[in-house]
Design brief:
- It is a single chain.
- Helix content is 48%, strand content 15%.
- It has helices at 4-29, 43-54, 71-79, 91-104, 119-123, 143-153, 173-190; strands at residues 61-65, 83-88, 112-113, 128-134, 154-163.
- A five-stranded parallel β-sheet has the order 3-2-1-4-5.
- The two termini are 25 Å apart.
Amino acid sequence: MIGWLKKLMYKQRARQVSDYYDQWSLRFLEITDTFQGFRTEDITATHAYTIGTAGLKGGMKILDAGCGVGGPAFYFASHLQSDIYPLTNSRVQVQIMKERKQAESKDNIFPSLGDYHHIGSLFGAETFDAILFLESLGHSYFPEKVIAECFKALKSQGTLYIRDHFIIEGKTREEKSRIKQLVNYADRTYVYNHIY
């Protein structure tokens, strides 16, 4: 059982993340439909890389947890004969994806509103062949709960795929201090939780 303080912190963080993306998603969408900090200029190469490294194939049921406005999810839906479930806790993002789904007549993508800390109860046991976190797990203050929920919702031979930010270590005291400042700034700005 989790402590009341940790539970309060992750609920508060979930609201902060939701508020952040409700406010900024339309602005980000002016630039890209894939809200990821480190990607190639050719975003299709990034998506193709994810398909290859995550072992995604046709016929799978795939959850994109913390999906943003669904850029990767729509790519996967177009390039795989699979059912794609993009999950976000932002109402604005869900609305954007529903409108895009209708405009593109996609019948294999199912946008959902929910908190990825509760994947198991949202979707049920042994539902997914793959669960993806594409630079999204860092929004959590309680990633161990998220991972436990994933193992409830994954099929027995399912894949949990996490691609996220990692902090490089500086060699000098000045480099270490500068990195810490930049990481703290990114955490505050993007409602993120880099771990040192």
